[in-house]
Amino acid sequence: MEELLRELQQAMAAHRRALDEKPDPATGLRRPKPVTPAGDARLQLMQRLTADIERLSGIEITATVLTKLSRALASVDLAELELWIGRLHLLPADDPEWLSLIECVTVHETFFHRDRFQLELLARRLLPEIIAEAARSGRRSLRFWSAGCATGEEAYTLAILGLLALRDAGFAEEATDRGIRCRPPWRLDVLGTDISRLVLAQARAAVYPTHALGAFRDLPRQLERFFPIAPQSAEAELRSVHAAVKEHVRFAQFNLLSRSPPETGFDIVLCRNVLIYLTAAARGAAQGNLKQVLRPGGYLLLGPTDTALDLAAYEVCWGEGALAYRRKSDDA
Fold it and tell me: What are the residues whose beta carbons fall under 8 Å from the beta carbon of 172, sequence distance 6 or more?
């Protein structure tokens, strides 16, 4: 098995080096040239499968991904595997079979208030600026997108920060249930998307365990008010998201390689710890979508190892230990 993994990883590396310049009309990505791997028939089938995974999801086939796939498919008969891979190849990217397979190889590690320096930049500088501009223009709304939201912690974190910023600006008020309510006509809307349907079901449930390395591992104590003990957890093993936060957050399944974004006109777009798992071509396609959804003056927040590829489209806003990209107007 280890030898198979090594050969497949080498074959996929050669496959990526052999990418053609001609774009795939379905995704806009360059399509791969045929590569004939050395080794047995199972290796060839696995290469076909991993090439399709890269093509449809953009996920780079690393040793970890190969291990997951090989373990999952080790008991499948060779003839059955060939028929299944051949049928998968003909299915669209949003087919349930593809989504189920991609869910097996994606990483969903996240927690509340992740990357505190970046969130402090957002809370102290960017949100007050955005709210002031929205008040001047008469727009009176905030719209955020958490792209690759996994189980929802980042989307709910954005909603909490938005509510606190609106309260501090005088456009929301404390409620008797310890929540915060927007003062009409102000609105807050947070969209969370992910390619995985399973994690979105968990995000919508909005109930999280409280163990040491769980969702609340880095949550500031002053924000615990937004996570009451879940009714079914008398011993505080589970906490839920406050209804006053949850009402502003919605979730949808979305592939970042889609040819069109889910919506447009966002003030803030967060896409962190997602792009690192994609191929170079997929990162370019995904960042094109992220830029397209931002309104002029909106901010893109990426992970600590990510960089905006189209730097000419942004102004860089620096903070202590963090940065954000402000989209320039189209005629700038």
Answer: 163, 166, 180, 181, 182, 183, 186
Q: Is the dihedral of CA 10, 12, 15, 17 positive or negative?
A: negative
Q: Is residue 268 domain-shared with residue 301, that is, in the same domain?
A: yes
**Contact present, 191 and 146 (Cβ < 8 Å):** yes
Task: Indicate whether 275 belongs to any domain.
Answer: yes
Q: Looking at the whole model, is its pTM more than 0.90?
A: no
Amino acid at the residue 171: F
Kindly state whether residues 182 and 224 are assigned to the same domain: yes
Mark whether 259 and 160 lie in a shared domain: yes
- Is 111 a member of any domain? no
For 88, 106, 137, 278, the CA distances from 12, given in Å and listed in that order, are 19, 18, 51, 14
Report the domain count for the chain: 2
Give 123's DSSP letter.
Answer: I
Domain-terminating residue out of 64, 85, 105: 105
Please choose, from the candidates 183, 122, 158, 170, the residue with its C-alpha nearest in 3D space to the C-alpha of residue 321.
122
Q: Identify the three-state secondary structure at position 10.
A: helix
Statement to judge: residues 148 and 285 lie in one domain: yes
Q: Specify whether 14 is located in the same domain as 156.
A: no
H/E segment holding residue 8: helix 2-17
Looking only at the bridges linking them, the beta strands covering 314-319 and 187-194 are unpaired
pLDDT score of 241 more than 90 = yes
Residue 41: pLDDT band with limits 50, 70, 90:
confident
* Three-class SS state of 293: helix
The 8-class DSSP code of residue 126 comes to I
Rounded to whole angstroms, the Cα distance separating 33 from 23 reads: 12
Confidence band of 236 (pLDDT split at 50, 70, 90): low
Range of the domain at 323: 116-327
- Does any domain span residue 332? no
Q: Per-residue pLDDT for 9 more than 90?
A: no
Kindly list the distances between the CA atom of residue 210 and the CA atoms of 21, 112, 158, in Å, as whole numbers in the listed order: 49, 11, 20
